[in-house]
Amino acid sequence: MGLFNKVVTTVAVALVAAVALTVATPADAAQKQVRKKAASAQKTTKAVPKQRRAKKVAVTPERPSFGQLAGLRNTEDDLDLKSSVALVMDQQTNEILLSKNPDAVLPIASITKLMTALVVAEAKLPLDETLTITQEDVDTEKGSRSRLRVGTQLSREEMLHLALMSSENRAAHALGRHYPGGLRAFVEAMNAKAALLGMTDTHYVEPTGLSSKNQSSAKDWPRWSRPRTSTRSSVSCRRRRNTASPSASARCSSAPPMPWCATPPGRSACRRLATSPRPGAAW
To answer: By the 8 A CB rule, do 219 and 88 touch?
Structure first.
């Protein structure tokens, strides 16, 4: 009996302990509920994708132009232009239609290439001659890009088209480099032509316009674009006035000149100049 009582007592204690473990107090139940909610919230947080942080991009302020630095942008004009310099002229009457700081001497960038093309055209160099782009033509001043790789070979005519139509710097530089006497002689010819045209504010140091030392004023450029007179054709026309009939002489004096010649289009002298410009003849 003593052993039986001990076994019964042990079993009773075990059952009481088991019941105590399975029956939770209100405090235990509340803690379990809190733990469940915390676990659920953690799962929800993991399910939502993390938002990427926006990358901060440094904004480089716009570099002011030379005209802005000189305070020319603030000059008032009738059209409220955003440019610092402007000049509009009627080519037929030479009447100034719009003028804004025309005397300001500033860098002219790729307007340089107009004089580059003029000097090349008046040099009467073979347009079908092959020119090669070399490392010398690569821009080391501003690091500008080009579609013409080193080693590219094109005719002088193609280089001229690219320089004017695409503002291709390497093409313009190659044109100057292949000038008789080299690049230095070419720049000298550019400045000599500017002086001949009366462009007193204009100065060049290279043929592309990449250098800010290539400078001019707005008032100089009507002199560049104004129809020019060839001495050869003018002499020819004067001779015709002395020998031709009155009607021919009248035609010689009244017919509108071609851009490169002072004689009327029907004269043979003008036809020769039109098909093959000569050094010294206007283009």
So the answer is: no
Has 110 been annotated as catalytic?
yes
Catalytic annotation, pick one of 167, 212, 234, 249: 167
Catalytic option among 84, 100, 113, 217: 113
Among residues 65, 83, 99, 110, which one is catalytic?
110
Q: Say what the pLDDT of residue 255 is.
A: 36
DSSP 67-93: HHHTTGGG---TT--SSS-EEEE-TTT
**Model confidence at 127, in pLDDT bands (50, 70, 90)?**
very high
Active site residue 219: no
As a whole number of angstroms, the distance between CA 109 and CA 141 comes to: 13
* 43 in active site: no
- Dihedrals phi, psi of 124, to nearest 5 degrees: 55, 40
Q: What's residue 21's pLDDT? A: 47
Question: Of the CATH numbers 3.40.50.300, 2.40.30.10, 2.60.40.1120, 3.40.710.10, which one belongs to the domain with range 96-225?
Answer: 3.40.710.10
Mean pLDDT for the chain overall? 74
Q: How far is CA 158 from the centre of its chain?
A: 20
